[in-house]
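Before the break, one more example. Copy the sequence into your notebook; we will annotate it together after we see the structure.
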Amino acid sequence: MKFAGFIFFSSLEYIAFIYLILVLFRFNVRENMFKFTLYAIVLSFASNSLQMESLQAFSPLIHVAVHIAFFSIFLGLHLFNAAVMVVTGYVVNSIVQWMIVAMVSHLNGGALKIESYTPDAFAIQAATALVMILCAWVTKFQNGGFSFIREASRFTRSQIFVRKNVPFLIFLLLSIVLVVAANMLYIAIEDPPYLLISILFFLALIALIIISVKKDREDDD
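Here is what the structure looks like once it is written out:
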């Protein structure tokens, strides 16, 4: 029963994660969601294996690499563009999840440790998925998002290490380090600094929005 719960709620969280990314970067959700849903379910089984092998600290890094590869394949994207999309999604997901855990910890009056395969963990995953979907709906309703990444960009000549990509490269590197470090802190420390980590993720998201808006304007000119 615990295994079934893990697969269901992990799949739900992955689907919400993918849905937000597609909406945020203005890709056709209806056209792409079926194959990504199947991918999310398969990834949940892989995530379960990582949990069983006690590799939780490194699972975000593994997931980032897998997501980038599959976004590139499914959407025909250049690896750099896929990385921008995936890491953006991870930053939003991390902000939402850490803030939810911080609020639950505060309401419980102190330290809170969420163990895998427990009702508390499933509730956190469900709440994270719900907030991510709400963020996507608000973005869509406001006609927000970014359009500088286009389908089939994998088949166009694109240099990664150029001056205009430097802010994105810095953001991607720092964000990945932050995601892995936050995960390791959560595992290693009984009472992690939820508020501080949430603020750092929020600042990373603000930096990304500024860079993305600038990129969108440059492409429009």
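The chain has a mean pLDDT of 80. The radius of gyration is 17 Å. Try to locate both features in your own notes.
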